[in-house]
Every structure is written in structure tokens, then in C-alpha cells.
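Everyone, carefully examine this protein record:
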Amino acid sequence: MILEIRKAVEEKLEKHPERLKHVLGVYEMATKLAEHYNQEVEPIQIAALFHDYSKYDDLVDQIRYIDLKLVKKYSETPVMYHALAAAALLEYRYDIKNKEILSAIRKHVWGDENMSMADKIVLISDKIELGRTYPKVEHFRNLAFTDIDQAIYEFLVDNISYNKQQGNKIHDEQYLVIEKIKEQLDDKTRTDN
């Protein structure tokens, strides 16, 4: 199955070589993190390969595969549409019902209040794959292998700050995700002490 998915992604992104390079980088990073955290590797690999499948589809095409409630929910942050559409397409075209795979694709943009380890691995791999070059990326890469929750938390805080400076709309859900991860980190700190 994974070879079939990879071929489909390579064909879809053949006119976008930089995006394909990114996707393959996410695949490599997600594989390493899955192995590091003793997770089942193949579902995470499939999610990593397919996470940006709909990235270059027109918004109209993306919306066609998304529940109307979600279209409305993310209308001011349509960057979410490609993740939701990709998960729907993977389920529809390849009859993949694995909730872990579909969830990791849906949540790779900024996460969710309830994330599995697979969700976390695909999300952070998307942000830290070796082709990414931005301030602090090396810090996030290292941190992802020691404390994935802390890496995601710090990345999301940084990302919101960057997007605010750029004048981009921040979805309320992004703040909720950060708040939830912060609570989990605080709980972990209390438990460790």
C-alpha cells in the first residue's frame, strides 16, 4: 500500500518538485520519530506521504471533499482545507479507514486539543524536516527527539508570533491547542517532581 501511495503522491506533485522534496523529507523525519518513540511506523509513513496531497488543488476542489461545518469553521484560515481534503481523498480513493492515519493528516497544520502520538509525529515532522530552514529549526529538531510535546508547544508559540507579525489570521483553535499542550507539560512536570 505504501508504494502505491508514494507513487500517487509523486505523480500528483511532479510539477511541484520543492513540495515533493518537502513531503519526502517529512516522510523521512516521521519515520525516524516513529521509530524513536516506538510507534507503528507504516501508518505514520502513509500520513506523512499524503499530508500535502491536496496542497495545490483549487480551494473549490478542496472544499468539495470537506464537511460544510468544517468549511465554515476554517473559512478565515483556509490553509486547513488542504489537510482535511487530503484525509478525505485518502479515505475515498484508497479505502483507508485507519483513523490514526486520517487524523494525523487532518491535524498536521496546527494540531488539535486531543492528539495521538501519530498526530504529533506528523505535525512536528512537517515543521522540522531537513529541508526546513528558519530560525530555531535545529532547536526544534533536537527537542522533538527528547520531548515531542515541548517541541510542538514551542514551535506553535513561535509560529503564532510569526504569523501575527505577518498579519495572518490566527484561528482560535490554535490558542486552544497551545493551552492544552501547556497543561499536559505542566502535569508532566508536577508528576516528575
User: Anything to note?
Assistant: The first helix runs from residue 2 to 12.
